[in-house]
Amino acid sequence: MDKRKHTRVVPFPNQPVQIQLMGNGFLDILIAQDVSQGGMAILVPHHFDGCDIHSAVELVVSLPGFKPFKAIGLIKHLSPGKAANGLFGLKFTQIDAKGKDFLDAFVKKLVSQRRMAG
Q1: What does each C-alpha distance from 108 to 7, 104, 113 come to in angstroms?
Q2: Which residues are registered as beta bridge partners of 81?
Q3: 87-95 and 39-43 strand pairing
Q4: How confident is the model at residue 4 (pLDDT cuts 50, 70, 90)?
Q5: Alpha-carbon gap, residue 5 to 43, rounded angstroms
Q6: What angle do CA 113, 16, 43 make, to 5 degrees?
Q7: Where are the beta strands (DSSP E) in 1-118?
Q8: Which CATH number describes the domain made up of 18-109?
Q9: What whole-number distance in Å separates Cα of residue 73 and Cα of residue 94?
Q10: Which of 117, 112, 116, 118 is nearest to 9 (CA)?
């Protein structure tokens, strides 16, 4: 059973979700592997080696078709196998109303497009 509270969607490859991630001693531009209103999975080729990922990170999220918005989040380790592949979770801890609206609309749009395509 899936214990997630939010629907997760996988962005279309030709419409990536870009994340600018600013943490304690690092700045990355990453692509989200999946997205929900509560967070996302990100692929981090360098696995955050040597970075302090235990404090909050600032994000600028660029969803295709929407204006970029800022948020604050926490990096979460996923299972060891996923982390070994450079996959990490990013949980939103602060997001403004506009960002929540954009995420909600983006997730609904992708769910609907997948249904029509499927």
Answers
A1: 9, 6, 9
A2: none
A3: antiparallel
A4: low
A5: 22
A6: 120
A7: 18-23, 26-35, 39-43, 57-62, 69-77, 87-95
A8: 2.40.10.220
A9: 7
A10: 112
Q: What's the pLDDT score for residue 67?
A: 96
98-105 own/partner pairs: CB under 8 Å, 24+ apart: 98/69, 99/61, 99/69, 99/70, 99/71, 100/37, 102/61, 102/63, 102/66, 102/67, 102/69, 103/35, 103/36, 103/37, 103/61, 103/63, 104/37, 105/66
Summarize pLDDT for 70-103 with one digit per residue, the tens.
999 999 876 777 777 888 899 999 999 999 999 9
Tokens 């700045």 sit at which residue? Answer: 27
Report if pTM > 0.90: no
Among candidate residues 75, 76, 13, 63, the one with its CA nearest the CA of residue 36: 63
Which residues fall within 8 angstroms of residue 109, CB to CB, at 6 or more apart?
A: 65
Closest CA to 33 of 59, 61, 11: 11
Q: Which two tokens stand for residue 44?
A: 């981090």
